[in-house]
Design goal:
Two copies of one chain form a homodimer. The first copy, chain A, is 20% helix and 29% strand. The first copy, chain A, has nine helices and 32 strands. In chain A, helix 4 (218-232) packs parallel to helix 5 and helix 7 runs parallel beside helix 9 (379-391).
């Protein structure tokens, strides 16, 4: 028997024939132990219908792996095999992990600057729309997408989904019988995103439902979470998002269920993918300090609070809904493109990550934020450009230049990459004619550039002489009223500008 | 002897000759009891130099008043007189008071919507600049000005003041000897503002000093506050502002001094003018709940927090520094005109009041925010228009339409006048194509208008059909995902718009 070569962080799949009588989804257990030398990893298997059982393994170490299965069914128990894990190729950089406390990196060490978008129900639309969505994503600069496993029932979302997620038997959904075709389709789209280098931020629960998915029993929910972990966990681009707007479900899903979902993921996902939970009301944030939460995933328009959220939770902040660009009647979906670009810059210049969504109304109710399809707005091009610009320099993550509670960083935003030292000062609604705060306090050899975040231009800046302060003594304290600096830069006096300062040589 | 007729809320002044030897500022006490029938009011007097002592009285009730003086000096003691208080005329509406908990009104009951500006040291500039300032104010729509009693030492403020506030003797200032000429000039300008219907928000202390005014002794400070109250209190347009940025003075003026200043004002100002204190750092707010504080006076750029501040202190919020329009190197003085107009609308639509300042750099360092002179920016015309627009309807004060912590009022801003019921929804950075949130939930006869806050236009709006929601049942809760409303309005899909809804008939 030839041993298969599998790239590190790719999927090794074992398919087995087993019992199809009764309800294997409920009754049959399957797992495998994958071993490399003395190390072993428990990998859960899953039922795929028609008597077919699968095990998926994502090796994270190169070398010779072997496995043996364990099952409650003798037909599935004790199967053995091997694989040879080889070096990754192409855009395979492994799963994204937390790095440097507040930031992310691929497993190969390359930085991941999260530029996500949102298409809640794109995998539930007609297939031609899904193809269009993938084409749009390919042209965009987004490297993460939030997407629901369940379809969405909501204004502008009244069409029937492509598949039922569970089987409909005699007109009623049976939440103990997955529609395996639906899961096969869904993971196919995770795979397409993986090929494109896009992280799939999978939303497990949400309140926008007319099919009963939001009203499954506690046991059904736990089994669903475990099934998803077993089935999708080997896709390196998967992130686990327990919910969109979990707090709107608290009347039927109490808080301890949410904690338990996290725990099940810890038990059933041997790869420890990123895990988060997303609030609805701004005041309803889950305690993201809990150990199973890898990063905070929030919605909040008040992006100058980004540092406060970092301080509160001590984890990366991903603000996936700082409101959406669009023109809907709903207040969460109608900010201007300029404002969304401004919120991205403000968020990243305060050490967090923002998310995109687009909600322009049209007769067909084909709105990107839920259905995918086409982008109609003006923010996405600026965000693509922003990502490319930042990726030139940012390696370890952008750390705020100062405490947000203290002048001047309460007012303007600035950050420096912890590895390259490249510094950015984002002035936003401020329009100084000359600037120095955040620039080096000792002179040296620097490359200075003016970034126009809306017009997407980079223009070299010369050093200028900073204005003199005025000594103001009061008691033992002397203030100057002007920022200390070795040099200044002269600016055109308009809004939406940033300054970049690179160390030369 | 003819009894003088004095308008209600005008100034009745008594001038007496008394001792000029020693230091009357320290040594001679003077007060009067003003009586109307069985009611009497203690009015403090003050020394005006050259053996001249004065008493100023602002009658608040029409009728026959009499007075008798009391003094430590026999030359000043026991003087008697009378005045006849008559109805006010012209723009004399009396002092501004707190009304409806979070709002202001003149003593005659007419509403006061605070549209203030800031010229810290305008009375210390050359006289021709002061005349220019008054002309500029007359053409502007501002009805309040923040102004320092002491001159200002700061970047762009290095020129010598017109007068020393205390006498310079042998090259040193003697803080026990006021320069009465300086005080006469200052109150003359308070009077000019009073004639123009502009409130004078008098700043007593600030840290920006090179003359020693910020380092007077505790006793000298207390005497200074009492002197100001006695001298300026009869001007109906006076507001007491203990400080600009009191927290930068805490290293030499501990907190109990600030409390004591307030208490002295309560003791020495029989008219109970409005009293406030102003922070520097955003985190350093005085406890504005203290009983002697009539309203919170703050600086904070984060204007969507206005309701939180109202809730915290239970008093009117005057955010006198939501940052200034300009282009300085200092981050407090370089936001765009659009942004400042946006912050005014956001603040007022959340039940507070904002303040203007303008800080455009020029070679002459003639900057409105400190020196007055000319306005160069673009916000002031919009604010004048805004005031005129709101004064058409707002009588009792603008109360927020909902809790800021809760959707949708965390995102957009809206308020209704408590008397007329006229409702405004300010959309700011939001650009819906159709809107209904905040409009009446029951149909009726309404006049609807679109307000373009930047272009200063008012355009009638027709009622439109609101989009249907979608019933989303989850447990016992049904949501619709769209706001409930009797009708909607269609909008042009741009930023900076407000909707006005008036009840007809």
């Amino acid at each position: 028997m030839t041993v298969q070569n599998i790239e590190k962080w790719a999927i090794f799949e074992v398919s087995l024939e087993g019992p199809s009588d009764g309800n294997p989804y409920l009754d049959v257990t399957l797992e495998a132990e994958f071993s490399l030398k003395g190390r072993s990893i428990r990998v859960p298997g899953f039922y795929d219908g028609n008597g077919v059982y699968k095990l998926r393994f994502m090796p994270e170490t190169e070398g010779a792996w072997s496995y043996v299965t364990r099952s409650s069914s003798s037909a599935l128990d004790g199967h053995q095999g091997a694989l040879n894990c080889v070096a990754p190729t192409g855009n395979n950089r492994g799963p994204v992990r937390v790095r440097n406390k507040f930031h992310f990196a691929y497993a190969d060490g390359s930085p991941f600057l999260s530029f996500g978008t949102t298409c809640y129900a794109w995998t539930h639309q007609p297939l031609e729309v899904q193809e269009q969505t993938l084409q749009t994503l390919a042209a965009s600069g987004f490297n993460k997408i939030r997407m629901g496993i369940f379809p969405k029932h909501y204004p502008y979302n009244t069409n029937e989904p492509l598949h039922d997620v569970y089987e409909v038997i005699d007109g009623a959904r049976d939440f103990d019988r997955p529609n395996f075709e639906s899961f096969r389709h869904f993971e196919g789209q995770i795979g397409r995103l993986m090929e494109m280098g896009i992280e799939a931020d999978l939303i497990m629960f949400h309140p926008y439902d007319r099919w009963g998915y939001a009203d499954m029993s506690e046991e059904q929910n736990y089994r669903y979470v475990a099934y998803i972990a077993a089935r999708f966990g080997a896709y390196r681009n998967v992130w686990w998002a327990l919910a969109n707007e979990y707090d709107f479900l608290l009347n039927t899903m109490p808080m301890d269920w949410w904690d338990r979902y996290f725990q099940i993921l810890e038990e059933e996902d041997p790869y420890r993918h990123l895990k988060s939970i997303h609030n609805g009301f701004v005041t309803a944030n889950y305690d993201h300090r809990k150990p199973w939460v890898t990063h905070s995933c929030i919605q909040n328009w008040d992006v100058k609070q980004t540092q406060a959220w970092r301080d509160r939770w001590g984890k990366p902040v991903v603000n996936d809904e700082p409101e959406y660009e669009g023109n809907l009647i709903q207040s969460w979906g109608n900010i201007s493109a300029q404002e969304l670009v401004h919120r991205f810059w403000t968020t990243m210049m305060r050490g967090g990550y923002a998310g995109h969504g687009e909600t322009y109304w049209n007769e067909e109710e084909a709105i990107w934020w839920a259905k995918g399809g086409l982008l109609h707005g003006e923010a996405w091009t600026r965000l693509k450009w922003m990502r490319e610009l930042l990726e030139q320099d940012v390696k370890g993550g952008l750390e705020p230049l100062g405490e947000a509670a203290k002048f001047p960083w309460s007012r303007v935003s600035g950050a420096a990459d912890v590895e390259s030292g490249t510094t950015y000062i984002y002035l936003g609604e401020h329009q100084p004619r000359i600037w120095t705060t955040g620039l080096p306090v000792e002179d040296g050899d620097y490359q200075l550039d003016l970034i126009d975040t809306w017009n997407m231009t980079v223009t070299p800046l010369d050093k200028a002489t900073p204005p003199q302060g005025v000594a103001i003594r009061h008691g033992s304290v002397t203030r100057h009223g002007s920022p200390d600096a070795a040099f200044a830069v002269e600016l055109p006096g308009k809004t939406g500008l940033a300054i970049r300062c690179r160390r030369k040589g």
